[in-house]
């Protein structure tokens, strides 16, 4: 028996194809034949018909056909399926034999050739005696044949040849050897394929015909065999549907067989074969679920059919193979396009195969543990005469025996022993590892990382059993971190235990130490006695001694290992191991914590290192050093103990170098920071803890940053979440969980002991030289040196502000663009204790808005910290936000000489420009002077002297000026005419003499100038009196170059009588003026509408009366004579309308010289009225105001 | 009836694993751990579904030769995994569901325990989740904790009595 006994036979696994033999081809010496053969067999693609060809000599002897059985009555089958049967029909018995023969139709020696050909066919027929194999003849011809029917000779001769060879016309082919060889060959092939199919069809019929003769009692095996054969022939016929159907029947029949210990292997073997075929066909038909269901059924049926207990490992091996074969089929189907899913992929089958392989190993281990003295039996019961078995799945020592009783128990015993001894030599681990790695590859593909890890652990363990410790360690080490990161400590401990064994057996120091460290740690779920043992071993190793062997190790391996360890001890060399802990969970935990997030440079930096051991016994460490990002501090933070190696065990509980399990050890470190590090971060980059010492072995545990290992972040999170109350501990002890790592601190400059005051009067006014007084006073105990002032706009604000802000120390001159926004490092000199200095800063802000100003004072001082003299640079800064506002608002308006608002001015007609300066500053402003700079287009009517010189404006007060201007005609100017500038020179009233005056220039608005054809102005008194003549003169001025036709009319008014021209038409020459005189006679008092003057220009229809109203008054105030008034008044009193009276009094009272008497009289009357009406107070007030 | 019951934290570390004591404990640990592959995949596939329509029961995770592994995930992504013997045909989907529901209730009770810190491994002997003895049938989950919890609350409420209604309101706010 070969070790690959369990492998499925090749002929079972291949795809059955029709077998056709080609004879008469000399492929070695004949180039034409060679080409024909190549065309048949080379580059067979999937679209060619499935035929397997073989070239055989014409006189090849085919397997002999056994004589036909006439009756099955006495026939008892010896087994289910002969081992040679499948191969016979795949490779030995052809479906069709093709005889190639070179013969052209016009062959001169036709007769001779024809008979030779017939002889060849006859020889082939002879050797196929009794078989249904078809024979075909192919004539290789040099000439291209004519189309059928045209060549008379050809058809005649063909018929003759068929006759001679006893062939049907369908079995004779012609193969012209021309250019289109491959095309002809493909046509030939298809014809062959048809013949082959007919052959297999008849074979199926033949097998089926046997079934009639079978009976159920003696021929049970034959049922299976025949069914299998039918299915196999169907496959050869490429009728896979029928093949599947027949295989399924065969499968059911197999399980109907009476099973017994003696034939169970045969049944299982056949069941396995048929199951394989079914699954394969199901996958081929793209019904993977059927395949899986069949396989499950198969396994469920066969799982319990273990057979002989002594050979139970055979069952495990068979099961393993079933799973593996199915996995292979599944995988193959996936490669051909099937999609698998996470929960249904070949990996599971490989995994199960591996599981059974492991079981096989276990069983083999317990069943095959024979003494070494037991020899392999001689003669070998597993040898057969032919070297192979007759039937699949039978025992070699009792082939063909169907009886369930063991005829020869002794022989049986020897046979079993032989199998067991053979099994002992099987490399089980190799099989298991191969299967596991197959499974790993699959699970990797289907996103099962944890399954993959699990399988890798199994692989590692298997390597360990196979004593390949290096590979075992490699695998285990690889997956460990997965379990660690997910916190599956039980699994991690189990893996670590195996890894520790491996590293012990290889005497791998570093690995041994690392695994020990972790197994002692809190992530390990080992019992305390185990931990003690490991700790003892670890201490031994650190003292350069051999550790005790790990339990459950192979005795021989331990012996080798002990030798290795002895070598290690004698070997001088590097005995210091640095182990980074961030990737695992060692038994010492470390946390570093600075006392504060920042330290002043004149105070020593203090931090604690907390250590805690989780091992069962106290342990000493020899050295602890802390590294910083600035390595200069490293030297200050080292604790070292010069202890002898053996002291590690002695006096363990004493001293600060000793870690007591479960107790937190706190170590305080202190150092003075360098002044260069001010403003920088000091970070603990690593903490190194040395266990053991350099004379023995030394392990340096290296924590990156401020401590913490693979598990601590999760623990910290849990601790933060917890609201458990922790029991109170003595003063100097802390709870481990409550310590939070703080691995960095800032060094900040010393606290300044000076005061900086700012004095100013906000808000600042635009463009003024704003004065900021900085007072610096030293409160230091010693003299401070090198005091420097930086002042100005705080950097980091809007870039536009920088452009529009200027700072200077000299307030006497206005600063311009060239001045900076920030003055840096103005040396101020030294300051004695208590001394004070003052500095004036002038800021000019060009735009409004708020700005942040920074005043920064720095100085140097000598300080002693921790008995070290250091020069400290201190600084103090003050920030102030200053708002800048406009000092005043200037409003400008154009009004007509009637003080009416003008939207546009008229050429050559005087108008008024009024400026109004409203102070918006909260502080008093002094307007030093103002100036109107006129644009060239404007001319002044009178002087342009400033009217507001040296005026002081308080908040909200305003100063107004009025200028009379005239604009000559300019034609039509788009957007109006520039007026000029208004310049105000001003300063704060509180500002000192030498502070320059600020000139604020205001651009006056443009004004639209319009030409008018006719200018009318009226000459009339400011008021009229009732029944007194009111002379009015209108001046009409022609402003055009034309003679103007003017129509003038005056409309009557109810309030006036008038004399003058009521309607007139006249002409005015260019540039000249016409006067119109009217005499109005008011009839009523009050504000009265004048009789309106209507002017109509014939040339300018759009010169309307609307426009005219702008130049001439439309109404006039008409007063009443006092005499008349008083008469009127009495009338009013009678009506008792007092309010009306008061109003009336205000408007109509007139004070002129001759009316004094009336006035007194009036007063008397008023008094009388007032007393009478109890309105004395308000009336008196009214009277008073009248004055 | 289950041979192994496990409660797994959101971060995929075990909070509680209990298996039939007669068998290899490690095997079940591995089985539960590997089943998380499928749980993760199912959760991520489910992530897109609406929260209210989400089914907590994940169904059969994967079959092995001898066992069936079922999964269940709570809204806070705590996973329950249950391993059942394949040969046990009495356990249908419905039974498994109800077992999970009971397990969920028990877990909720554990979370209600004021002395339990969420995320800690559930270790206390008497606060155990349903004991999964193979002899014991599913419904026989015995949970001591809820009654304990209720007792605690009762005591608290009793102590609050002197404070009147206000005090009790305060308690409920907690």
Topology:
The complex is a heterodimer of chains A (1187) and B (174).
Chain A: H1 10-13, E1 18-23, H2 31-41, E2 51-55, H3 85-92, E3 96-102, H4 110-127, E4 134-141, H5 152-165, E5 172-176, H6 181-211, H7 220-236, H8 240-256, H9 264-284, H10 288-302, H11 312-335, H12 346-367, H13 409-424, H14 428-445, H15 449-465, H16 469-486, H17 489-506, H18 509-520, H19 528-542, H20 555-570, E6 576-580, E7 588-594, E8 598-600, E9 605-613, E10 619-628, E11 638-640, E12 658-659, E13 664-671, E14 681-692, E15 698-704, H21 712-721, E16 744-748, E17 754-759, E18 764-765, E19 769-778, E20 784-793, H22 799-803, E21 805-808, E22 822-831, E23 836-845, E24 849-865, E25 868-885, E26 888-896, E27 904-906, E28 911-919, E29 925-934, E30 939-940, E31 951-953, E32 958-966, E33 980-988, E34 998-1003, E35 1008-1010, E36 1014-1019, E37 1023-1025, E38 1030-1038, E39 1044-1050, E40 1056-1059, E41 1063-1068, E42 1073-1082, E43 1086-1089, E44 1093-1097, H23 1105-1111, E45 1115-1119, H24 1122-1135, H25 1138-1148, H26 1156-1173, H27 1176-1186
Parallel strand pairs in A: 1-2, 1-3, 3-4, 4-5, 6-15, 8-16, 18-25, 27-35, 37-45
Antiparallel strand pairs in A: 7-9, 9-13, 10-11, 10-12, 10-14, 14-15, 14-16, 17-19, 19-23, 20-22, 20-24, 21-23, 24-25, 26-28, 28-32, 29-31, 29-33, 30-32, 33-34, 36-38, 38-42, 39-41, 39-44, 40-42, 43-45
Chain B: E1 4-8, E2 14-19, H1 25-46, E3 57-63, E4 67-73, E5 79-85, H2 93-112, H3 145-160, H4 164-173
Antiparallel strand pairs in B: 1-2, 1-5, 3-4, 4-5
């Amino acid at each position: 028996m070969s070790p690959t006994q369990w492998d499925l036979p090749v002929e079972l696994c291949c795809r059955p194809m029709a077998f056709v033999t080609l004879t008469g081809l000399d492929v070695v010496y004949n180039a034409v034949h060679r080409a024909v053969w190549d065309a048949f067999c080379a580059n067979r693609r999937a679209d060619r018909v499935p035929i397997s060809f073989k070239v055989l000599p014409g006189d090849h002897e085919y397997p002999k056909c056994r004589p036909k059985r006439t009756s099955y009555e006495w026939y008892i089958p010896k087994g289910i399926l002969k081992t040679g049967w499948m191969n016979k029909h795949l490779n030995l018995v052809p479906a069709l034999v093709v005889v190639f023969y070179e013969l052209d139709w016009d062959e001169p020696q036709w007769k001779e050739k024809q008979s030779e050909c017939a002889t060849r066919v006859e020889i082939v027929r002879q050797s196929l005696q009794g078989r249904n194999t078809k024979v075909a003849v192919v004539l290789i011809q040099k000439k291209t044949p004519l189309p059928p029917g045209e060549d008379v000779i050809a058809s005649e001769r063909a018929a003759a040849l068929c006759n001679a060879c006893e062939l049907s016309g369908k079995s004779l082919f012609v193969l012209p050897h021309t250019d289109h060889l491959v095309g002809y060959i493909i046509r030939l092939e298809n014809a062959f394929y048809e013949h082959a199919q007919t052959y297999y069809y008849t074979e199926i019929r033949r097998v089926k015909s046997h079934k009639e003769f079978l009976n159920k009692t003696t021929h049970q095996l034959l049922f299976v065999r025949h069914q299998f054969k039918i299915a196999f022939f169907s496959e050869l016929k490429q009728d896979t549907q029928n093949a599947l159907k027949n295989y399924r029947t065969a499968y059911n029949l197999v399980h109907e067989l009476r099973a017994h210990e003696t034939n169970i292997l045969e049944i299982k073997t056949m069941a396995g074969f048929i199951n394989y075929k079914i699954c394969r066909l199901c996958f081929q038909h793209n019904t993977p679920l059927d395949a899986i269901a069949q396989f499950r059924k198969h396994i469920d049926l066969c799982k319990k059919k273990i057979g002989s207990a002594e050979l139970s490992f055979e069952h495990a091996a068979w099961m393993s193979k079933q799973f593996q074969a199915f996995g292979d089929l599944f995988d193959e189907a996936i490669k051909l396009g099937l999609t698998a899913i996470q929960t249904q992929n070949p990996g599971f089958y490989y995994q199960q195969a591996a599981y059974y392989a492991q079981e096989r190993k276990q069983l083999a281990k317990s069943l095959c543990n024979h003494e070494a003295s037991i020899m392999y039996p001689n003669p070998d019961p597993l040898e057969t005469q032919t070297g192979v078995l007759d039937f699949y799945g039978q025992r070699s020592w009792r082939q063909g025996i169907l009886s369930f009783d063991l005829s020869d128990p002794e022989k049986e015993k020897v046979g079993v022993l032989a199998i067991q001894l053979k099994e002992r030599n099987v490399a089980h681990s190799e099989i298991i590892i191969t299967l596991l790695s197959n499974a790993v590859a699959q699970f990797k593909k289907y996103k099962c990382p944890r399954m993959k890890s699990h399988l890798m652990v199994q692989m590692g363990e298997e390597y360990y059993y196979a004593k390949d410790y290096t590979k075992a360690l490699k695998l285990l080490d690889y997956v460990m971190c997965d379990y660690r990161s997910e916190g599956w400590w039980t699994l991690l401990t189990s893996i670590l235990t195996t890894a520790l064994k491996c590293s012990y057996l290889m005497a791998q120091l570093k690995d041994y130490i690392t695994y020990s460290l972790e197994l002692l740690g809190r992530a390990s779920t080992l019992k305390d006695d185990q931990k003690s043992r490991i700790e003892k071993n670890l201490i031994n190793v650190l003292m350069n001694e051999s550790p005790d062997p790990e339990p459950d190790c192979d005795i021989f391996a331990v012996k080798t290992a002990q030798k290795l360890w002895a070598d290690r001890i004698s070997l001088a060399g590097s005995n210091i191991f640095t182990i980074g802990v961030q990737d695992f969970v060692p038994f010492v935990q470390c946390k570093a914590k600075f006392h504060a997030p920042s330290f002043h440079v004149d105070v020593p930096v203090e931090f604690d290192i907390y250590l805690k051991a989780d091992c069962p016994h106290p342990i000493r460490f020899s050295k602890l050093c802390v590294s910083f990002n600035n390595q200069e501090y490293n030297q200050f933070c080292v604790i070292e103990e010069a202890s002898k190696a053996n002291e590690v065990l002695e006096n363990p509980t004493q001293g600060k170098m000793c870690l007591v399990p479960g107790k937190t050890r706190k170590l305080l470190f202190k150092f003075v920071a360098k002044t260069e590090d001010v403003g920088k971060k000091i970070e603990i980059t690593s903490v190194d803890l040395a266990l053991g010492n350099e004379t023995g072995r030394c392990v340096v545990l290296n924590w990156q940053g401020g401590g913490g290992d693979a598990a601590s972040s999760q623990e910290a999170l849990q601790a933060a979440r917890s609201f458990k109350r922790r029991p109170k501990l003595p003063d100097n002890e802390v709870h481990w969980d409550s310590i939070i790592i703080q691995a960095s601190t800032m060094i900040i400059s010393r606290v300044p002991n000076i005061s900086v005051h700012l004095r100013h009067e906000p808000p600042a006014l635009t463009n003024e030289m704003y004065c900021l007084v900085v007072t610096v006073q030293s409160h230091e105990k010693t003299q401070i040196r090198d005091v420097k002032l930086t002042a100005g706009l705080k950097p980091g604000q809007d870039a536009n502000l920088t452009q529009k802000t200027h700072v200077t120390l000299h307030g006497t001159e206005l600063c311009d663009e060239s001045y900076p926004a920030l003055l840096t490092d103005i040396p101020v000199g030294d300051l004695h204790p208590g001394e004070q200095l003052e500095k004036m800063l002038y800021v000019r802000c060009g735009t409004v808005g708020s700005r942040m100003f920074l005043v920064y004072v720095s100085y140097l001082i000598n300080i002693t910290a921790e008995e070290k003299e250091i020069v400290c640079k201190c600084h103090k800064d003050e920030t102030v936000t200053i708002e800048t506002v406009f000092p005043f608002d200037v409003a400008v308006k154009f009004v007509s000489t009637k003080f009416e608002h003008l939207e546009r001015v008229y050429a050559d007609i005087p108008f008024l420009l009024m400026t109004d300066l409203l102070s918006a500053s909260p502080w008093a402003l002094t307007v030093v002077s103002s100036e109107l700079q006129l644009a060239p287009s404007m001319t002044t009517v009178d002087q342009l002297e400033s009217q507001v010189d040296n005026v002081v404006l308080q908040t909200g007060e305003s100063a107004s000026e009025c200028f009379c201007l005239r604009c000559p005609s300019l034609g039509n100017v788009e957007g109006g005419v520039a007026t000029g500038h208004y310049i105000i020179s001003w300063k704060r009233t509180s500002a000192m003499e030498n502070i320059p005056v600020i000139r604020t220039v205001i651009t006056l608005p443009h004004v639209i100038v319009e030409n008018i054809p006719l200018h009318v102005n009226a000459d009339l008194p400011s008021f009229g009196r009732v029944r007194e003549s009111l002379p009015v003169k209108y001046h009409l001025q022609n402003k055009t170059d034309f003679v103007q036709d003017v129509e003038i009319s005056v409309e009557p008014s109810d309030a006036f009588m008038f004399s003058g021209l009521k309607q007139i038409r006249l002409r005015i020459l260019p540039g000249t003026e016409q006067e119109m005189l009217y005499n109005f006679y008011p009839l009523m008092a009050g504000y009265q509408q004048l009789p309106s003057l209507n002017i109509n220009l014939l040339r300018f229809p759009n010169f309307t009366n609307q426009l005219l109203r702008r130049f001439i008054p439309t109404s006039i105030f008409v007063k009443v004579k006092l005499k008349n008034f008083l008469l009127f008044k009495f009338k009013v009193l009678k009506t008792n309308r007092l309010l009306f009276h008061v109003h009336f009094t205000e408007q109509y009272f007139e004070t002129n010289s001759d009316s004094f008497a009336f006035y007194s009289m009036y007063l008397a009357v008023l008094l009388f009225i007032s007393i009478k009406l109890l309105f004395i107070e308000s009336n008196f007030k009214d009277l008073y105001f009248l004055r | 009836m289950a041979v192994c019951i496990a409660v797994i934290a959101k971060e995929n570390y075990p909070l509680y694993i209990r298996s039939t004591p007669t068998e290899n404990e490690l095997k079940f640990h591995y089985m539960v751990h590997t089943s998380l592959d499928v749980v993760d995949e199912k959760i991520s596939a489910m992530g897109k579904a609406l929260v209210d329509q989400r089914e907590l029961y994940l169904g059969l995770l994967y079959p092995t030769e001898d066992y069936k592994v079922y999964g269940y995930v709570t809204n806070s992504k705590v996973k329950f995994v249950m391993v059942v013997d394949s040969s046990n045909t009495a356990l249908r989907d419905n039974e498994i569901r109800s077992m999970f529901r009971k397990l969920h209730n028990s877990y909720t009770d554990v979370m209600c325990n004021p002395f339990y810190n969420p995320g800690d491994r559930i270790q206390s002997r008497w606060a155990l989740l349903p004991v999964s003895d193979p002899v014991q049938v599913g419904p026989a989950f015995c949970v001591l904790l809820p009654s304990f919890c209720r007792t605690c609350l009762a005591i608290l409420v009793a102590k609050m009595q002197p404070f009147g209604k206000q005090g009790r309101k305060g308690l409920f706010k907690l």
